[in-house]
Structures are given as structure tokens and as C-alpha cells.
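Researcher: I'd like a candidate sequence for this fold, 113 residues long. If you have to choose between options at a position, lean toward the conservative one.
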């Protein structure tokens, strides 16, 4: 596993990753943004089923502060705001894929389907 790299540095990097991605919504938001280009707030809200507007707003701000999402305001009337995944956010592609495969195996283990 990862123990050969030394416990303190490994724990710190895992802690940093968990803080950036904590909660049940951030990875789902990044997944929604990873396909078909920039999206407006309501588009993301529709794709991430079950998330409230308040929570989505909070999570987008946190993702932006971690440079995983870019917020762009267009000079229109009314102003148009679009969100897109950054190259740093795209670097999570393997993590999301592995979570997907693990989730399938976990579901089969627990539910039997």
C-alpha cells in the first residue's frame, strides 16, 4: 500500500485530499462538469440530483477555492455565470473512475446486485 513512503507525509497528503473533496457532493459536481464543457448553475443543479441550491453554491465556492472549478462571469444582461472544471480538477479522473469501480463492487458485495 502507501506505507512505504512514511506515515506522517502520507497521512498529510491524504488529509489534504480529503479536505479538498470532503462531503458527498464535490466529486459528483466535478463529474457533472467533466462532460460537455462549461455549465450554468441550474444545469449543474439538474445533473446532481438531490442537491439544494444553497449546498451547490457552497460546494462550488469551495471547489473554486481549491482550484478544481473555474467560475466565469460573462458581461451580459442579466450577467451569465458559467462553471467549468480546471485541469487540476481533471486530474481527479482516475480517482473518480476508481471510486466508480469500487462502488460497483461494494454494491454487489452489500446488496448482491
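Model: Candidate sequence:
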Amino acid at each position: 500500500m502507501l506505507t512505504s513512503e512514511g506515515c506522517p507525509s502520507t497521512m498529510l497528503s491524504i488529509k489534504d485530499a480529503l479536505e479538498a473533496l470532503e462531503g458527498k457532493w464535490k466529486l459528483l459536481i466535478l463529474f457533472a462538469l467533466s462532460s460537455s464543457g462549461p455549465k450554468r448553475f441550474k444545469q449543474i443543479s439538474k445533473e446532481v440530483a438531490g442537491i439544494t441550491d444553497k449546498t451547490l453554491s457552497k460546494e462550488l465556492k469551495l471547489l473554486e477555492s481549491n482550484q478544481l472549478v473555474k467560475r466565469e462571469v460573462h458581461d451580459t444582461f442579466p450577467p451569465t455565470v458559467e462553471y467549468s472544471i480546471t485541469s487540476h480538477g481533471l486530474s481527479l479522473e482516475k480517482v473518480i473512475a476508481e471510486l466508480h469501480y469500487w462502488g460497483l463492487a461494494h454494491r454487489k458485495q452489500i446488496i448482491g446486485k
